[in-house]
Design a protein that fits this description.
This protein starts with 15 loop residues before the first strand and ends with a helix. Helix 1 links the parallel strand 1 and strand 2. The protein folds into 2 domains: 138 residues, Rossmann fold (3-Layer(aba) Sandwich); 158 residues, 3-Layer(aba) Sandwich (Rossmann fold). It is 41% helix and 16% strand. Helix 2 packs across helix 3 and helix 10 packs parallel to helix 11. The chain is of the alpha/beta class. Pfam families: DUF2229. This is DUF2229 domain-containing protein.
Amino acid sequence: MSGLHPGHPLLDSVIRVGICRALDGVRFLPDWEAFLAGLGCEIVVSEPTTRQMVESGVRQAPAELCLPVKACVGHALALQGRVDRFLLPRIVCRRTKEGPLFGCPKAIALPDMLRALIPDLPPIVEFLLDEREGDESRAYRELAEALGLRKRRAGGWPTEKWPREKRPSGPAAEWSHRQVTEQAGPGLAGRARTPVVAVVGHDYLIDDDELSLGLLPRLAAAGAQVARGTPEASGAAAILPGFEPDWLFERELIRQALGWASRLEVDGLLLATSFACGTSAVTYDIIRRAVRRHRPELAVLELVFDEQTGPAGLTTRIESFVELLRMRR
């Protein structure tokens, strides 16, 4: 229920709904914008991450949280006073052909965490997706009800099944999406002397130039050819993990990484994560073990980002990695 009584001014005016350009909000942003526009809402999306947002989030959030969650707190603070409602995702469970898979524990707790960290935040409405209880269309219906609204746009409720096409948002994401389009196709082996580096990690980290310190442009500047996303099928034998956790997005990363590792034209694998990310500690160990068993000559670099990471050290590690790959070709 919305908690809005009949005659409440918000029911007779346009509701401004704030969306943080962070975490799983990046993944759902295009669908949410279309859905909320159909409800007659005004959508206010936070700006791309800035250093000020990161610093304000670090001051407000507990030290144990990962960098993207701290940045999300900064995004919420930046929207404070500009919106009537905050929309946050709570992706609990997806039903797949392999059984139920679950979201990141910290991201599941994000709405409750923000309520506790920022007591004077505008009311939070949740996009609660738990397919043990109902499908995605139910999550949209409940979202409309939480806003005190009903679906006005023709065409019914969104019912697309996971995974859907990723549609990144913001300049950094547009840059990376262009690179995927140009470089992740069958022409990867076309540049004989250019090392090919497959970059694996959560989009909300890699595609955020502030959080990743411009990781993708730095790789390109060092002379690497970047491969992103899910690789196309090749004739090489698939590399299979010995174990896959029941985490929805982490399985996606495992399959991306091992898909690229099975392609012989890929020279290196770069795993990007953030300090205090509990799921990546397990996921990336699974990836490294599988690579060592099936393709031990593949170079693997893991980069860990937090609020203390500096551009000079990052550039040195990237340039050294790319030079190593160039020497081994």
